[in-house]
Amino acid sequence: MSTARVKSRTKHNVPSEAEPIRVVVTGAAGQIAYSLLYSIAKGDVFGKDQPIILVLLDIPPMLPVLDGVVMELQDCALPLLREVIPTDKVEVGFKDLDAAILVGSMPRKEGMERKDLLKANVAIFKAQGAALDKYAKKTVKVLVVGNPANTNCLIASKSAPSIPKENFSCLTRLDHNRASSQVAIRCGVPADNVKNVIIWGNHSSTQYPDVHHAKVTVQGSEVAAYDAVKDDAWLKGEFISTVQLRGAAVIKARKLSSAMSAAKAICDHMRDIWFGTKEGEFISMGVYAGGNSYGIPEDLIYSFPIQLKNKGWKVVDGLPINDFSRAKMEATAAELVDERDTAMAFLSQ
Questions:
Q1: Domains in the chain and their CATH numbers?
Q2: In the structure, what pLDDT confidence band is assigned to residue 266 with cuts at 50, 70 and 90?
Q3: Of 82, 80, 104, which is closest to residue 94 (Cα–Cα)?
Q4: 114 annotated ligand-binding residue
Q5: 274, exposed or middle or buried, with CB in 10 Å at 0-12, 13-18, 19+?
Q6: Cα dihedral value 188, 190, 194, 197, nearest 10
Q7: CA–CA distance from 137 to each of 88, 95, 308 (Å)?
């Protein structure tokens, strides 16, 4: 064994520690972040041997709350957590980042029109995109969670021209998990017995949860979801509306938006970017639509079936699309085109 090799080992013959990666969570004083930060800091996302520097970014009035979050993270005594940095400054928050999880956005308030919501969020994500462009690593992986997530992601990407478009994605994994779970419950199997559901389009009530290509393992055999469920009317009706409207149903019941399930979906999404998807499986994420084979307008962030490897993604091409699916895919694309055009008008102001 060479000397250099010996030096890179500890006395227990374990490889020496990896360099910490730097991860920012925006909206870090909010409830999604509260469910998310522990999972990141304990190694559930980036690996059980990957040290983390966690940057918590929020607006100035939330800094006292962030101090409490920092105390709790310290009190968890997590071995991988090297440093926690609370801040309200983008130059601190976005410096030298390996990963950015953009949770913070302007929520829709009662009586607020969608265009008002878009206008407020264009300002936020234009500023954050510009800060990423200026301060983060060019290899940074950016996940946009704050709604309207697809269009916010597009604005952030356009405001960060030196970072590849492929490095930006938005969260539709929560919808994907909801769809998988609904099928699993219907078939009486564990959730991981369902694979390859697809969320097409926008993270909104126009999204299309599609199980035409999904498989369910029932009593040891893998069968098509339609054959496992044996209820086409449910799959084309109530199943779709349940997934589309699930966020609103949670708010109605809990008087708060989905936080635990959103945090779990963020972890799933980022872990798959870091470690890849399983052979023969795909997940859903909102990505830049350029060059897609499904006829979706190109200058959008649109949710597709995705496979990941070596921190890069590709759209699963060539899946047969029937007329029922085509109509729903086009309807959600039309909403995204409308959102994009409204947002771009604000962006140019």
A1: 18-170 (3.40.50.720), 173-344 (3.90.110.10)
A2: very high
A3: 104
A4: yes
A5: middle
A6: 90
A7: 20, 8, 21
* C-alpha span between 172 and 2 (Å, rounded): 48
322 is in an annotated binding site: no
Residue 150 near residue 182 (C-beta atoms within 8 A): no
Tokens 């060539």: give the residue.
318
108 annotated ligand binder: yes
| DSSP line for 63-128 | HHHHHHHHHHHHHTT-TTEEEEEEES-HHHHTTT-SEEEE---PPPPTT--HHHHHHHHHHHHHHH
Cα end-to-end distance, the chain, whole Å: 63
Strand 52-57 and strand 141-144: the pairing is unpaired
Q: What is the pLDDT, as a whole number, of residue 16?
A: 53
Rounded to 10 degrees, the C-alpha dihedral 333/339/345/348 comes to -90
Query: Could you give the residue ranges of the DSSP H alpha helices within the chain?
Result: 3-7, 31-41, 63-75, 90-93, 114-135, 149-158, 173-187, 225-229, 232-236, 238-244, 246-254, 260-275, 323-347
CA torsion sign for 290, 295, 297, 301 is negative
To the question of whether residue 268 is assigned a binding role by annotation, the answer is no
Distances (CA, A) of 247 to 139, 164, 171, 174, 191: 32, 31, 13, 10, 19
CA-wise closest residue to 23 among 159, 107, 140, 167:
140
Does the pLDDT of residue 302 top 50, yes or no?
Answer: yes
Give the type of residue at 248.
A
Measuring CA to CA, which residue among 202, 195, 156 is closest to residue 179?
A: 195
Q: Is 147 annotated as a binding residue?
A: yes
Question: Environment class of residue 189 by beta-carbon count within 10 Å: exposed (0-12), middle (13-18) or buried (19+)?
Answer: middle
User: Which tokens in the block code for residue 155?
Assistant: 């604005």
Check the annotation: does 178 bind a ligand: yes
| Catalytic machinery residues | 203
Give the C-alpha separation, 174 to 258, whole Å.
Answer: 9
- The tens digit of pLDDT for each residue in 23-75 reads 999 999 999 999 999 999 999 999 999 999 999 999 999 999 999 999 999 99
Distance CA 163, CA 142 (A): 10
